[in-house]
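note to self: dont lose this again. the chain is below, predicted strucutre after it. 515 aa total, dont forget to put it in the shared folder this time
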Amino acid sequence: YHCFGCGAGGNAISFLMDYSHLNFVEAVEDLADFVGVEVPREASLGPVKKNNTAEILQVLEQVTGFYIDQLRDNVSAKVAVDYFKSRGLSGEVAREFQLGYAPAGWDALSKRFKPQQLIEAGLVVTKENGSVYDRFRDRVIFPIRDRRGRVLGFGGRVLDDSLPKYLNSPETAVFHKGREVYGLYELLAKNAKPERILVVEGYMDVIALSQFSLGYAVATLGTATSKEHLELLFRFSSEIVLCFDGDKAGRAASWRAVEAALPSLKDGRQVKIMQLPAGDDPDVLVRQEGLAAFEQRIASATSLSAFFFDRLNQGLNLNDLEGRASLASKAKGYLEKIPSGVFQDLMLEKLKELSKVDRLDFFEKPTTLKSLRYKQNQADVKLSPVRIAISLLLQNPSLIGVLDEKNINWQGLGFPGISLLKTIVEIIVENPNINLPSLLEYFRGKEEEGYIGVMMNHDFFISGDELKEEFSGAIDRLINQGQESRLDQLIAKERASGLSEHERKELLSMLANRK
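---
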């Protein structure tokens, strides 16, 4: 496809990746589900059979329906209904988040589903004798859905004083709590491109805020906010506000989140820290002070940069050399984690201002591939030999064998795109069985991604031996161009200042080979 308005283009997979904010594998899975075919899985996925994922997801969806029905129909669920009402939740919000109730019995699920399915879905606990019992019993249930709306697991809260108060599904073939956040599906259903996303600590915080019409909150699943969480959320919004309790534990969690965020802070992204009064949580505050006052707290959240330097300055006397030197030393390791760009430069300038050190050469600026910037219209991309080689190798990694017959002097090839071609060659050599999806994922989010997308979609309308001949010809032309460039250099140097004995022999050899 190609949009003549904005210039976006690609294929069905890249369209779904951009439109639905999916990665390559997720987009392929969605398309496969749509046309009713199975996606082949690599052996590295572990002991779960490749066709079991769909079965596990189906069981989880059915169990979700069971829990919802129990909340509505089970006489014992009155205490659960009363709990939700006491928290001010409407039936509409309960339906939006698919809230449910797990009955108190030990075998409510095992009577209705196959034990092996329940084991793989993480819904039962296996005893030493091999028998199983329900993991969630007499708890209100919070289904955990991914951004595509698929139920991956559950959170459950007790209705009395027993422990643990909250219980999550264990890690399974489909559920990895370090990669998922609660409430993202519901958020995106309201607004696919939110201005900001608020990260809170609990399920009820997300639901209570939604009840008050604040629909852009999500929660981590009992784990610290990680780089994976932030990268996921940055797919949908450029501003993330992290909400923490203002007590000592909350301040420590805030700092850990800042550390996790640093590698994700590409230019244009913002992370802010919102610290609540000690002992309060969003659920309580939004009820006490109302939505407008709570949103004012969000708008007034501390920028990551201010929080960062305030934290590092603690205990230091910036009026003496030792304090300023300590600040510079402490900050170096953190600032190195920030991607090269304007934000990193500004953070470094702020450090110079605070430490009163004009020269802080911490980083080597990497050479950017400006020549490989994404060109919106594929017609603008002229298929030079290097582009032909890149395109063919991306689409057919097995062509790498052709290079065994070539004598390539990479250092002698200074054309735009050569470094990218060399990188692709090195990746394939190190991973002989790599496929196109894995190659694309390697460049996902990197500067070369747009160029890779254009090259991947070029159709040569040839196959088999013709592909091999085309690739071999492109490499030969590259080698010849490199030799011609070297020949021109030697001739120019001979005229300007003369050649060394070694260079003269090289020139004569090259001239002889041209005849």
